[in-house]
Amino acid sequence: MKESILNNRDIKFRLLKPRFIKMLSLSILVILASCKVKKQLIISQTKKPDTIVVINNIISQIQLAQNQFDTFTGKAHAKLQMGNDNYDVTFNIKIKSNQKVWISITALAGIEAARILITPDSIWLINRLQGVYFKKTFSYLQTIAGNDINFKAISSVLIGNAIKELLNEKAAVATRGDTTLLTGSLNSIDYSFQANKKLMALQTVLTNLNKGQELQITNSGQFQVGDKSIPAQIDIRALTSTKKIQLGLHYLKADFNQQLEFPFTIPESYQEVQ
Fold first, then answer.
1. How many Cβ atoms sit within 10 Å of the Cβ of residue 85?
2. CA-based angle 179:233:258, to the nearest 5?
3. Could you tell me the end-to-end alpha-carbon distance of the chain, in angstroms, rounded to an integer?
4. What is the reported pTM?
5. Quick one: pLDDT band at residue 97, thresholds 50, 70, 90?
6. d(CA 173, CA 202)
7. 2-264, what's its fold?
């Protein structure tokens, strides 16, 4: 019986071998880093004053429809695809608005494999299975994603909110049935943003043709959390000229504005790696 249990555990640990932990963690960071869009605008045309008023009104309504919160906690079944490799894990997510994002990654057996802490100025990762950790400044994401990162956008994407920079008066606005569509350009990035009839984010696409990069975020379903709601499913796809990463989050539970702790203690026996 003991041998059978150990064999089953070995099978589960194969999903969490060192290469997987590294690839998983970096893939998450690449996806989150791809959420960055700069504020400087490329103005393609001058809009009439009355048009700007209409656009500003629509944008204000979308902004008001987004979830405002102090803290968020959620548990999600995560499916990660990196090239031809597929993995199933569980994400436990905690967010302190504008301060930190905490993610614990567990395997099928409920064993924690890794823990990530992201703040506006630093990134920390603990690899439980190998007894190692690394810490980087926030600018580290530039080296793995090729651009800056907007910390606030991370929280927005994880709870299904709109990315703030896309809601600006320079966008072109159209309505199609129950959906509202915003399109435009931010520096070298072309974007499209769709909101549903409740003006919550439905789909966001960021494209940089010069670098061959595309980020697509699709929200579907509804998970009710008190008087708020988040998408039941968030699918994120990041494409570059050399890699394709897809992350699907299916929320199992969630809550807002609870008193939270963000434990992140590194055991003395753990070794720092680069």
1. 11
2. 105
3. 40
4. 0.83
5. very high
6. 15
7. outer membrane lipoprotein receptor (LolB), chain A (2.50.20)
